[in-house]
Amino acid sequence: xxxxxxxxxxxxxxxxxxxxxxxxxxxxxxxxxxxxxxxxxxxxxxxxxxxxxxxxxxxxxxxxxxxxxxxxxxxxxxxxxxxxxxxxxxxxxxxxxxxxxxxxxxxxxxxxxxxxxxxxxxxxxxxxxxxxxxxxxxxxxxxxxxxxxxxxxxxxxxxxxxxxxxxxxxxxxxxxxxxxxxxxxxxxxxxxxxxxxxxxxxxxxxxxxxxxxxxxxxxxxxxxxxxxxxxxxxxxxxxxxxxxxxxxxxxxxxxxxxxxxxxxxxxxxxxxxxxxxxxxxxxxxxxxxxxxxxxxxxxxxxxxxxxxxxxxxxxxxxxxxxxxxxxxxxxxxxxxxxxxxxxxxxxxxxxxxxxxxxxxxxxxxxxxxxxxxxxxxxxxxxxx
Length: 384
Known about the structure:
Layout: H1 2-17, E1 27-31, E2 34-39, E3 44-51, E4 57-59, H2 68-74, E5 84-85, E6 91-93, E7 96-99, E8 102-105, E9 115-117, E10 130-134, E11 138-146, E12 154-164, E13 168-177, E14 182-183, E15 187-188, E16 191-192, E17 209-211, E18 217-221, E19 227-233, E20 245-246, E21 266-270, E22 287-290, E23 296-302, E24 306-310, E25 340-345, H3 359-362, E26 363-364, E27 371-381
Antiparallel strand pairs: 1-2, 2-3, 3-4, 5-15, 6-9, 7-8, 10-11, 11-12, 12-13, 13-27, 14-26, 16-25, 17-20, 17-22, 18-19, 18-21, 21-24, 22-23, 23-27, 24-25
């Protein structure tokens, strides 16, 4: 206990003493075959370049050229482009939960006040993180959450992003509660388009091939996408990606699957690793995504037990793509199904479903292990 206290004090000192930085300043890190850019506002990924099948670098994430546009977006449509979301990612039914007999109520910022989304009205995505360390291949941000949005207690979080040969991008989110028991569930909220808008087919993810070999179950939701408590199986349904399948093959069957009167995917898939692995092991790829337009393939290795998949069902052609993704004479906008969000996290709203046995992965105390979200993103070329 004394060792843990000393560690927390040391880490807090680092975070507090680090000089405050311009929240919109860009930090670029690079390694052979990859470079990525981040800003402190939301500890946010703004650009990620990897080479396509022709050896040309392509920016495969959505965002804005002007960092100030992220602030403007958050103040209007609030699409969560590229940040860390928390203190509790995804949804909390009625914005309410009870931990060790203490009930907390978080602002209900989703579905006209029926649930909390991504940590409340001002989540981690709208916070100005502090740059603790930065070099040519890695950058670390910190955030001291002083009971933001009504969550219990104070939490210190570090987000470390590293690129390396492979090419590979690794994200490590480490959260330490400083006083009270609290739920913690963070996630990177990146909008991907591996086709990088290089051609008409590359402007949509419907032709992308998605494979989640261990996602045989999913969390059932109601018509506002809040878990009902039920667990479903994907076998024989449009949700089955346990074998490689184009995203668009069954998407028209996914009516009311992503909320009322919505067609597309916005689902939490449960990762049931094989017996040769373990529930939080990072030894196996949990997701493979690829684009024929660029030949770029992404494999994700994570210690989390769920993947939330959102196929940009609500994008409507009002957000222009970045200059790096303009490949024609006319401005390209992000249309419906023009991207995919992959959130590595624990089970959505698990804090309100103790019957799922998720408490050890979602409730943290001063004498527990820290909350760690590890996600490794490996890039390659299809067939190579």
